[in-house]
Amino acid sequence: MTIRVLLADDQALLRSAFRVLVDSEPDMEVVGEAADGAEAVRLAREQRADVVLMDIRMPGTDGLAATRTLCADPELAGVRVVILTTFEVDDYVVQALRAGASGFLGKGSEPDELLNAIRIAAAGEALLSPAATKGLIARFLAQEGGDGPDPARADRLAALTGREREVLVQVAGGHSNDEIAERLEVSPLTVKTHVNRAMAKLGARDRAQLVVIAYESGLVRPRVD
């Protein structure tokens, strides 16, 4: 199956470079280019994109607002948003993850990293750059002002079983299903089942949101090195 990719960035030169890279792969194609968030939302609907590579800072409707719109639309539940950023720590990136983005990728990443990110997002599985995303969220939440865990988030954790909490902690640690399976001495399929159940109970769109919830609820404490 061909992965349908939408490029959303206000820099035409960057979009052109991404297009050449993506279209060179036999299993993916660029189905549209957007210079702002509003256009990205419109094209995602029209072209039925599987993955949107979304820049945050764009004129008019920015990438954050566009991500919120895309991820809140039930008809676009299958669309995955990957945030493209030039900043290692960016509060807009964290807000985008909270809104439902599947992860983030630096604009300076290697071509193979970008292509792999698209494939992972399209599969709806592992969080992109899990350790890096975990670190970004941890550092940002640690800087938010010390308001403490979100009581609403913490209360929702009561719906999880003990094993689901264990798995959630491991997910927040940036570990893959295989790594979690080895740590907890269960099968990867069992881990995947626990992850899916945790997402359903917590209303999380994907693993990225699970990481955010784990920190916001206080289940995992931010650490700043």
Mean pLDDT: 84
Uncertain runs are none
Order of helical and strand elements: EHEHEHEHEHHHHHHH
Helix content: 40-55%
User: What is the number of helices?
Assistant: 11
Task: Describe it.
By secondary structure, this protein is of the alpha/beta class. The protein is built from 11 helices and 5 strands. It has helices spanning 12-23, 37-47, 63-72, 91-99, 111-123, 130-142, 151-156, 162-172, 177-184, 188-202, 207-216, and strands at residues 3-8, 28-34, 51-55, 80-85, 103-106. A 5-stranded parallel beta sheet has the order 2-1-3-4-5, sandwiched between helices. Residues 4-122 form the Response regulatory domain. It comes from Streptomyces thermospinosisporus. This is Response regulator transcription factor.
Question: How do you describe this structure in short?
Answer:
With 225 residues, the chain is α/β, with parallel strands linked by helices.
Write the layout of secondary structure elements.
Elements: E1 3-8, H1 12-23, E2 28-34, H2 37-47, E3 51-55, H3 63-72, E4 80-85, H4 91-99, E5 103-106, H5 111-123, H6 130-142, H7 151-156, H8 162-172, H9 177-184, H10 188-202, H11 207-216
Parallel strand pairs: 1-2, 1-3, 3-4, 4-5
Helix pairs in contact: 2-3, 3-4, 4-11, 6-11, 8-10, 8-11, 9-10, 10-11
Modified residues (4-aspartylphosphate): 55
Domain Response regulatory: 4-122
Organism: Streptomyces thermospinosisporus
